[in-house]
Each structure stands twice: as C-alpha cells, then as structure tokens.
Amino acid sequence: MSTSPVTTPNQVLRPSKAPVATGLLPFLGVVWSVALLVLGLIGIRDALVYAGAIGGTAWIERVAADLDGQRAADWLAVAGVVAVLLGLWLLSIAVKPRATNELAINAGTGVFLTKPGLRRVVKAAVTGVDGVDTATVSVRRSRVRVVASSWSDDDPEATRRRIEDRLEHQLSTLQRPPSVRVRVEPAGGSR
To answer: Which of 153, 105, 147, 157 is nearest to 127 (CA)?
Structure first.
C-alpha cells in the first residue's frame, strides 16, 4: 500500500525536489559504455574467426596464451593498488551528493532560479536605480558583484547605497540570499 504525500487545503502543488548538477557520472557512463562496446566487438570478431567467416587468429585466445605461465612481477602490485584506488575514487563519485546548481526561492512549491536568471534579475534591479546608466553583473551561488556606471552628479556612495537597498529587497525572496558587492564608477572615466 503506497501513501500519498500529505497536502494542506491551501496547498495545491507538492514542493518539488531541488535540481542538482549532473556531475561526472554521465561522462564515466559513456566511457564505460564505449569500453564494453569495444570488448563486444572483439568478441564478435573472435566468434567470426572461430566460425571461419574471416581469416586470422582469435585475439582473446592470443592474449590468454601470452598471459598463461606469466609470473607475478613488481609492476603487478602497483597496478593492483592503482586499480583499487581507481575503484574507490569511482565509488566516491557515485555516492557523493551532487551539487545544487540553482538558487531556491521562498515558495511552497519549490521554485528555483538559475544563475543566468539571477544575473538578469540583478541587472534589471540595478539599472532601474536613479543615477545608474549601465551595470555589469557577475553572479556565483554565494556572491553577486555589481559594477555600475553613473552619469549622475550624485555622490557615488549615495548611488551605491540605493543599489544595495534595491538588491537587498530583490534578493530577500531567495532562501539563502548571496552577499552583494557594489562598486559605482563615473560613466566615461573619472571626473
């Protein structure tokens, strides 16, 4: 018997799960798939050799014959340690939680904002401040940097405070608002 999630009368949609980055596993999956494909093609080739459809000697049989009677060498211990370390590294990649790549917004249904979306929101908010002509915005998950240019004769410090106030209001909807750094430069160089 399965149970459905409990919803309140005012809650129409269930909260969604946080989106996460894909990580390294898809790449490793492709590499592993190609390796298995190559082994399968070698097996098909050897089957065709045994059936007499193509000439030559079987590769798998030749490798097995070359390895038969070999004694353990020093490099074999090193190869074993490398294989174990590679296996542990792959296991840690598979088990490690993937990074979240979007910023959560305070909403009951699980709304998220991407970094390019946050950049557009911040740029629109900054260019809407009195005295700001243009703005350059760089965004990370935990930090927003703004370089605004102003033609205004206002004090650059007053313009910076207006920008910070606007951004504080705009970013307050995020569950974890990033830190904000603002620099105001006069447009067209120094005055």
So the answer is: 147
DSSP 97-154: PPPB-SEEES-TT-EEE-HHHHHHHHHHHHHTSTT--EEEEEE-SSEEEEEEEE---S
d(CA 123, CA 138): 9
Residue 22 Cα to chain centre, angstroms: 6
Q: How far apart are CA 108 and CA 12, in angstroms?
A: 9
Q: Give the DSSP H or E segment for 50.
A: helix 25-51
HSE-up (13 A, CA, CB side) for residue 150: 24
Amino acid, single-letter form, for residue 67: L
pLDDT higher than threshold 50 for residue 170: yes
pLDDT in tens, 148-168: 988 777 788 888 899 999 999
Is this model's pTM higher than 0.70 or not?
no
Question: Phi/psi at 93 (nearest 5 deg)?
Answer: -65, -40
Q: Residue 174 gets which letter from DSSP?
A: B
CA-angle at 68, arms to 64 and 69, nearest 5°: 170
